[in-house]
Amino acid sequence: MRAPALTRKRSLRMASALGRSMPSISRDAGRHRGTLSNYRPTRTTISHEAFERGTAQTRSEDLTANDWAAASVVDSMTVNTVGSGIKPQARVNWKRLGISQEAAKDLNEQMEWAWRLWSAGIRGTRN
Q1: Is 70 exposed, middle or buried (0-12, 13-18, 19+ CB in 10 A)?
Q2: Which end of the chain, N or C, is less surrounded by CB atoms within 10 Å?
Q3: How far apart are CA 102 and CA 17, in angstroms?
Q4: One digit per residue, pLDDT tens: the chain, 127 residues?
Q5: How is the chain split into domains, by residue range?
Q6: Which parts form a coiled-coil structure per UniProt (predicted)?
Q7: Cα–Cα distance measured from residue 14 to residue 20, given in angstroms and rounded to the nearest whole number
Q8: In 10 A of CB 7, how many CB atoms?
Q9: CA 2 to CA 7: how far, in whole Å?
């Protein structure tokens, strides 16, 4: 642990040789003065964290429902995260199922149709 002290002493000597001063080290992190005078974080209990999370959730829902800017942020984040949505493509293994290729093609179309029908119901639209 002596290396940092030696490095600091060496830096001080070099700075004084060049006619410069070294900035002093601040040890204010544990004190309540200066810019940290009003910074007093508290530890919360699990039940209080749940209450705060509920409050934040309620506020965000209200903002999203009543403020165009908040709704735009949520929409933008959704599009950038999810994209245009899940679009599965059915590809059943007809050999493993023991059916013909034509039957597998029909089954693929039926599964994709069922997905579109279900997802349209979730979105509240019918395609």
Answers
A1: middle
A2: N
A3: 88
A4: 455 555 667 766 776 777 666 666 666 666 667 776 777 777 778 888 888 888 889 988 999 999 999 999 988 888 888 777 777 889 999 999 999 999 999 999 999 999 888 888 776 665 5
A5: 89-127
A6: none
A7: 9
A8: 10
A9: 9
